Amino acid sequence: MPEGEGAGARLARTIRAYWAVLRRHRVILFVTMALCLLAALLYILLSTPDYRATASVEVEDLPAGAAGTGTPRPTSDDTETVMQTELEVLRSRALAEEVARSLALVGTPTFFDGMGVSRPREGTVGLSQRQVEQERVVTLLRQNLEVELPGKSRVMRISFVSADPTLSARIANAYADSLIRSDLKRGFESGVQARRFLLGELDGARTDLSRAERELAVYAARSGGAPVEPDQSAQGDAARAKPAEPKFAPSEGSIESRLAQLNGFRAQAVSDRIAAQKRWESARRASAETLPEVLNNGAMQQLMTERAQARAALVEERQFRKDAHPEMREARARLAALDDQADEMANRIRASLKEQYDVAVHGEKQIGSEIAALERDAQAARGRDVQMGIYERSVDTYRMLHDSLLQRYRDMASQAGFQAGRIQPLDRAAVPARPFSPKVGETLLLAALGGLALGLLLVAARHIFDDAVTSADTLAERVGLPLLGAVPVTGDNPQPPEIFTPIARSLLLASTGGLPRSILVTSAQEGEGKSLTLNALALALAGLGKKVLVIDGDMRRPVQHALFRVAPGKGISEVLTGQAKPADAIIPTGVEGISLLPCGAVPPNPTELLATPALDTLLTSVRDDYDTILIDAPPILGLGDASLLGARAQANLLVVEWGRNHHGGLRASVERLRRAGGVIIGAILTKQQGRAFDYDYHRGG
After folding, report:
1. Which of 124, 380, 558, 585 could be joined to 570 by an S-S link, Cβ 3.0–4.6 Å?
2. Contacts by residues 460-466 (CB-CB < 8 Å, ≥ 24 positions apart)
3. Exposure string for 572-595, b = 16+ CB within 10 A, e = fewer
4. In this structure, how many other beta carbons lie within 10 angstroms of the beta carbon of residue 287?
5. Distance from C-alpha of 307 to C-alpha of 341, rounded to nearest angstrom
6. Is the distance from CB of 55 to CB of 158 less than 8 angstroms?
């Protein structure tokens, strides 16, 4: 068979098996569902109808008309936090007390009648009757309040459940109104606190501004300047936003202009000093008569002309006169005088050049010292300007802070008293026309589903934990054995042989060789009718012409000799201990074709006796003399005798009492017998009650 078909066949077989289990236990399923439906119906009839009224409110991002509307819009996390906060406020005790006060619920019996509870009549230790009643009212309000946050919206649905529809609507609306009033109160109180805070900050800013202005004025007075006040009305906030600039207007004779002028003078003085130095250096190294200043001097030129004329006259006179001549001496004296005058004048001109150079150097140094002094003054002035700018910027900063706080305080003061809250009403709760609970359809549907689930659990538990056999189907499901036949209740009387004739005929087909040569008959527990079943089965086989040997292997409670009405003598215990031979212990039963090997003396420990090889020797010695050997074995549970006997028998037949073995005993017995090596060919159902077992043609192995 292909794999797909094999899986399909297994699935169909599994479905049929489950369906068979449900069909067999359908009474449990139907009774469970009926009981659950009945309980639901009683609950509906006995329950007090409850009415639920719902009001809704909207939670906004910011209160309408709130100051600072330019703040960023809250994120989704902030929104969720706000909604959860309002939810906790709704469920708070303080809001429940506010609702109780607004509706005057304490002291009136209407509320307790609507809630279906009794009103407290007396107080407790430490609490008065009114306090106990108020505590009860608050508890009932909080217990019956329902708040819903649908999805990600900003709408809150406030519901209240009670037995009085009018009371439910009143309380739901009261909760919505109290929540709105609470939000307005919190907003007003927070506004008052904010205004108080701003007022304190405004006083601090005003103090800081006065201190900064005073420091600016003191410094300006000490530095000899006067700060220039800006035109606040003309400049406005734009002027306040600009960085502070120096407030001193430079004059024409200020340090900067004077320094610039002196720098020009110093450049000219340096130029003059360089020119004078060059002239002086030239005059110091050259002859005085070759100096340009000397040559260009008018008096010097006249003197040199006169000296040249005197020299020429001297030369001319020397041609005619001797040096000793008075005129010659006079001419030489005159020339010497002119030379002295020329040298003196040249020296004076050179001295004037030196003096000019010294004057130029002195002038340059004087201008440099003045410039250095002015630079020191300029640096000090710049320091004063920087410090003045710091003071002025401090004044501007404190003025801007003061003006901003003042404007914010004015805005909050102007909005106080008429600012809308964060929570706005949407829908008012209407008086419900129909009760909210009990819900007949939903309750019955849940009861039916619950009954179905409980019934399925009971069926599964019974199927898993209950080994009771009532039909061939249950026998196959519990232990996987075929049912050879069913026997009605007969008490302790022998079973009618005609009932076992079909069972005996089925034993003829139990193996490929026909009737098994040895068959062990046992049961899971005592009292299931195994010995009576073996006795009747031996009679049915004898009626079919078979030669049968019955061995009473239940050496703890032997009964076969009593069922065959023979006197007990030597038996299997003597054969296994070697005290007798099998031929001497086997006795006739008075029924043609049936012989009996009774128990004999009851041994103290049958298990040790059955574990000896003598049992195999016994079965081998008598096997060829009979068509089959029926062995009556003790119950399987609690004893090891049945396992030892079952391992040596060719086939094992299990006797199962109808409706017994509720706690897994049958499965444990079959598993134990199979582990010992016994081959179970089927089971016989005894003490059957009711109609005969159903035969299902489709019941697969």
Report:
1. 585
2. 462/25, 462/28, 463/21, 463/25, 465/662, 465/663, 465/664, 466/662, 466/663
3. bbbbbeeebebeebbbebebebbb
4. 10
5. 9
6. yes
As a whole number of angstroms, the distance between CA 323 and CA 327 comes to 9
Count CA atoms closer than 13 A to 361's CA, side-chain side. Answer: 8
Looking at the DSSP bridge assignments, the partners of residue 629 are 518, 549
pLDDT tens track for 571-594? 888 998 888 898 889 999 888 999
Q: How many C-beta atoms lie closer than 10 Å to residue 687's C-beta?
A: 20
Cα angle: 197, vertex 200, 202; to 5 degrees: 105
A 10 A CB-CB count for 69 gives: 9
Cα 526–Cα 531–Cα 532 angle in degrees, nearest 5:
115
According to DSSP, residue 125 is labeled T
Q: Which of the two residues, 283 and 370, has the higher pLDDT score?
A: 370
Ordered alpha helix ranges (H), 254-325: 255-285, 292-295, 298-320
Cβ neighbours, 10 Å, residue 145: 19
Mean pLDDT over residues 230-235, rounded?
Answer: 43
Long-range contacts, 384-391 (Cβ 8 Å, 24+): 384/223, 384/225, 385/246, 385/248, 387/219, 387/223, 388/216, 388/219, 388/220, 388/223, 388/225, 388/227, 388/246, 388/247, 388/248, 389/244, 389/245, 389/246, 389/247, 391/212, 391/215, 391/216, 391/219
Closest CA to 384 of 392, 395, 372: 392
Instruction: Tell me which residue has tokens 């038996």.
Output: 571
Tokens 């589903």 map to which residue? 449
Helix (H, G, I), strand (E, B) or coil at 3: helix
Contact 151, 83 (CB under 8 A): no
**291 contacts 349 by C-beta, under 8 angstroms:** yes
DSSP string, 627-694: SEEEEE---STT-SHHHHHHHHSSEEEEEEEBT---SSHHHHHHHHHHHTT--EEEEEEEEE-SSPPP
Enumerate helices (H) and strands (E) in the chain, giving the number of each: 23, 12
Residue 125 CB neighbour total at 10 angstroms: 4
Rounded to 5°, the CA angle 339-345-348 comes to 140
Give the β-pairing of 51-59 and 518-523.
Answer: unpaired
- Separation CA 118–CA 113 (nearest Å): 7
The residues, ordered by sequence, that sit 6+ positions from 200 with a Cβ below 8 Å of its Cβ are: none
| Residue 26, φ and ψ in degrees, nearest 5 | -65, -25
Q: Is the peptide bond before 438 cis (omega within 30 degrees of 0)?
A: yes
Structure tokens at 157: 């649905």
DSSP class per residue in 578-639: TSS-HHHH-EE-SSTTEEEE---SPPS-HHHHHTSTHHHHHHHHHHTTSSEEEEE---STT-
Give the pLDDT confidence of 127-158 residue by residue, as tens digits: 888 889 999 999 999 999 999 987 778 899 99
Token digits of residue 642: 């049945």
Q: Which residue has the tokens 């020009």?
A: 264
Threshold 0.90, pTM exceeds: no
The C-alpha atoms of residue 604 and residue 353 are separated, in whole angstroms, by: 165
Q: Hey, CA dihedral for 27, 28, 33, 37, is it positive or negative?
A: positive
- pLDDT cut 90: percent of the chain above it: 16
Nearest CA among 455, 460, 453, 452 for reference residue 17 = 460
* pLDDT confidence bin for 225, thresholds 50/70/90: low
Q: Measured between alpha carbons, how far is 597 from 568 in angstroms, rounded to an integer?
A: 9
- Closest by Cα among 145, 191, 202, 132 to 172: 145
